[in-house]
Amino acid sequence: MTHEPAAGGSYLTKLVQEVITESKQLRGDVQRYEESHRRERRAYRFIGVVLMAAILICLLLITTSRTTLRSTERTLDFVRSCTVPDGECYKANRAGTVDFREQLLGVVAVITDCDVLNDDDAKFRACVSKRTHLDASISVPTNPNK
């Protein structure tokens, strides 16, 4: 810029136009900077959201894995309890099996005795019902040999 006086007000007009032009350029630079800054902030936000999502997914996977591991351990403990002679489940099932076997042998003995003693099907059913304390109409078998 030259500061020489010119005829009329042209020097001032030219000076004002230069200031206006520089002001427009500065305004454009500021707008481009602000737009660039906005894009940069959006990119940082996006990266932050992606990182937070990744961290949350990792935490979810860790929690799920721990839960699955605990559940598997409980299942294995139960299976061990049922397969090892010292286990509670093993002992309980063994006691139940012994009781069932004794009851089954008792019913077989009653059926055999009643079969030997009674030739008639009705007498056989009545004998089995009486000795097993069952109602004859419910579950007493018929005489298999008659």
Rounded mean pLDDT score: 83
Overall SS class? mainly alpha
- In one word, what is the shape? rod-shaped
Which percent range fits the helix content?
over 70%
How many domains? 2
Q: Please report the distance between the alpha carbons of the first and last residues.
A: 134 Å
Report the β-strand fraction as a percent range: under 5%
Structure description:
The protein is mainly alpha-helical and 146 residues long. It folds into two domains: 7-83; 87-141, no CATH class. 79% of the residues lie in helices and 0% in strands.
Please tag this protein with its features.
mainly alpha, 3 helices, 146 residues, 79% helix, 2 domains
Topology:
Elements: H1 10-83, H2 88-117, H3 121-132
Helix pairs in contact: 1-2, 2-3
Give the structure's gist in a few sentences.
The chain has 146 residues and is mainly α. 79% of the residues lie in helices and 0% in strands.
